[in-house]
């Protein structure tokens, strides 16, 4: 059992301290719930990843340099394309990503 002081001033001090701690915990819970709600809302509103992507080089008007499967972790500076555009790009000689292997996914083997 917890040792509780018998006198009223110390009991009131303990009560005030515990109330202050409880408010701090309630504030932290509210903030955590808000973060979780924002994260869930963001995930629900995020558009789906495209099925196919073409990576472009650096600079304005840079030519395409690599074809990726949608969601590839190695893809940078990409634009979404259709399956047909991805096939055309691979046939035209744009290299396939070595990580996600869109050529295998599309049925084209180098």
Give a short overview.
Helix content is about 45%, strand content about 15%.
Word description of this protein:
The chain has a 4-stranded mixed beta sheet with strand order 3-1-2-4. The model has no long low-confidence stretch (mean pLDDT 92). It folds into 2 domains: 46 residues; 55 residues, no CATH class. Strand 1 and strand 2 form a beta hairpin. The chain is of the alpha+beta class and 110 residues long. The chain contains 3 helices and 4 strands. The radius of gyration is 29 Å and the shape is rod-shaped. The longest helix has 38 residues.
Secondary structure: elements and pairs:
Elements: H1 8-45, E1 52-56, E2 64-69, E3 78-81, H2 83-91, E4 95-96, H3 102-106
Parallel strand pairs: 2-4
Antiparallel strand pairs: 1-2, 1-3
Rounded mean pLDDT is 92
- The number of helical runs is 3
Give the biggest sheet. Answer: 4 strands, mixed
Write down the oligomeric state: single chain
Unreliable residue runs:
none
Beginning-to-end CA distance, first to last residue: 75 Å
Overall structural class, as computed from helix and strand content, comes to: alpha+beta
Query: Strand-residue fraction?
Result: 15-25%
Indicate the overall shape. rod-shaped
Q: Radius of gyration from the CA trace?
A: 29 Å
Sheet with the most strands: spatial strand order: 3-1-2-4
Helix-strand pattern, N to C?
Answer: HEEEHEH
Number of domains: 2
Number of strands: 4
Helix content: 40-55%
């Amino acid at each position: 059992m917890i040792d509780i002081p018998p006198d009223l001033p110390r009991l009131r001090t303990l009560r005030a301290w515990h109330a202050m701690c409880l408010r701090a915990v309630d504030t932290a819970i509210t903030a955590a719930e808000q973060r979780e709600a924002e994260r869930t809302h963001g995930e629900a509103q995020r558009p789906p990843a495209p099925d196919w992507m073409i990576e472009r080089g650096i600079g304005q008007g840079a030519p395409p340099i690599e074809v990726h499967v949608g969601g590839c972790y190695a893809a940078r500076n990409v634009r979404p394309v259709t399956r047909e555009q991805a096939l055309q790009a691979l046939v035209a000689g744009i290299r396939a990503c070595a990580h996600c292997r869109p050529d295998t996914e599309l049925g084209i083997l180098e």
